[in-house]
Amino acid sequence: MTADELRNKFIEFFTSRGHVQIQGKSLLPDNDPTVLFTTAGMHPLVPYLLGQEHPAGARLVDYQKCVRTGDIDSVGDRSHLTFFEMLGNWSLGDYFKEGALAMSFEFLTAPEWLGIPLEKLGVTVFEGDENAPRDEESAAIWKKLGIPSERIAFRPKEDNWWGPAGATGPCGPDSEMFYDFGGEPCGPDCGPGCSCGKWLEIWNDVFMQYNKTADGTYEPLARKCVDTGMGIERTVTILNGLRSVYDTEIFAGIRGAVERAAAYVYGGDAEKDRSVRIICDHLRAAVFILGDPRAVSPSNVGAGYVLRRLIRRAVRHGRKLGMEGRVLPPLAELVIERFKGPYPELEENRLSIIDELAREEDKFLETLKTGEREFEKLLPQVLKNPQRVMSGRLAFRLFDTYGFPIELTEELAAENGLRVNRDEFDEAFRKHQELSRSQSAGAFKGGLVDQGEMATRYHTATHLLHQALRLVLGDHVAQKGSNITAERMRFDFSHHSPMSAGEIERVEALVNEQIRRDLPITVEVMSLEEAKEKGAIALFGEKYENQVKVYSVGDFSKEVCGGPHVTRTGGMGVFKIQKEQSSSAGVRRIRAVLE
Q1: 3-245 CATH choice from 3.30.930.10, 3.40.50.300, 3.40.630.10, 1.10.510.10
Q2: What is the pLDDT of residues 501-545, one digit of tens each?
Q3: Cis peptide, bond prior to residue 111, ω within 30 of zero
Q4: How far, rounded to the nearest angstrom, does the alpha carbon of residue 532 sit from its chain's CA centroid?
Q5: Topology (CATH level 3) of domain 453-594
Q6: CA pseudo-torsion sign 182, 188, 191, 193
Q7: CATH 3.30.980.10 in the chain, residues?
Q8: What whole-number distance in Å separates Cα of residue 16 and Cα of residue 112?
Q9: What is the pTM of this model?
Q10: What mean pLDDT do residues 571-581 have?
């Protein structure tokens, strides 16, 4: 079964059981400062899992593009990915454990759907602790469905519990489904959930049935929800009897192109195979990030830093395989062709994707030249060391300051009869990794978006700012992203040149005028076409459901949005633009506060 067939079957199955298909969202979350990328299929749905009513109803299904970078250094083995696709179905106060597990089981095992043999499936459920009981209910449902007791493993909270993202909020046990690759168990405790390689997780059903309170107790929720996720790449792997995601048709085209460019046949050398896999994964992730409606450009901070790291790591491993010159753009064309069906934004942004990759690859090749020059400058000092050892501190300086890979430093050192103190470098790199991981993953463990009073004010202010910019600069202005905390707001918008001091003053004045007017904020649910007919702004390139929420700020602005918002503009504070600057080509950025 191909990825496209699996995606279509999943949607068909759940729509036939009363679910409404909704659109997957951007890879770059809007208004959520806790995370750089959409890291799970449920991330865009968190406000609805927390109690908001979804315009499409209580049963939903979709496919969502995701990026996780916390394990970026593990990519290169047979299963880790930075970019992946997640299939998901949701119940917002509708069915619960029995309905969710029964549908999961049917989709996995029924011959007309995936047809996985029962003897190949195993599951895990929550073993219970002092805060919540052992999930005997899920275990009993699995037994009734046909999973034998020996293939039902009770696991602790770190394995089978979801959330909350912060200190308080909705949370609950989950039940994970695993595929048994066969072979002998690694020991007496080997079973579903074991990390020995015998079992591969393919689906997870999360049951949000508790609210963790400030005093640490767990109260039952009045409205219980289900959030599920099935990874496309892993499931396609097992459906085709393979052991690696990189052996699937998903990667066949790009992997073949890498092999041809490197004049290397995959499967002949473990280290070279690792480089091939890194190129395939990192380039695919970079193409999707660059092709997103809210795309960022490579930079040294935030999501742009992660993107730069992915691109440069792909280039580095291309060089290790002997691929010279500019190699990424033709490979990117293959990724676009492969995925433009389910993700048409890749075709729409083809030119900018290719241009950005070419520019960043050229820049990195210059970086490598600079790093080699800096190494030559350090060489006389290092050669004075009687142990013929280059300190890890110097090697890390080349990496951190110039982006020069440690592998190249070690190669150049060896050519000069030296070795690098790798332990010292690894310690410096570990500290750097921890900082990068906190940047990349943030505090997100479930996607709780800040809906506190100040963040809500700032979110409402983005509507006022958006309309004010359009009135002052022109209708070409469109929101390209925002980042909100309880202390400030950041707003990116399309515009070709820096704003003048006069333009900034006029925008500030317009926003503050609407705050002084104490305008009411109202919300209506309507079709997207009706919203556009009524003049509502919808983000260019964003995907929307058939039914959307339209928020109106008095007679000043009307915008398709998911919330949250204040009820009136009065009392929001005094709006002050602190900085206006370039974000990327054709995109400006405003930083502002409510004083």
Answers
A1: 3.30.930.10
A2: 999 999 999 999 999 999 999 988 888 889 888 888 887 556 667
A3: no
A4: 29
A5: Threonyl-tRNA Synthetase; Chain A, domain 2 (3.30.980)
A6: negative
A7: 453-594
A8: 13
A9: 0.73
A10: 94
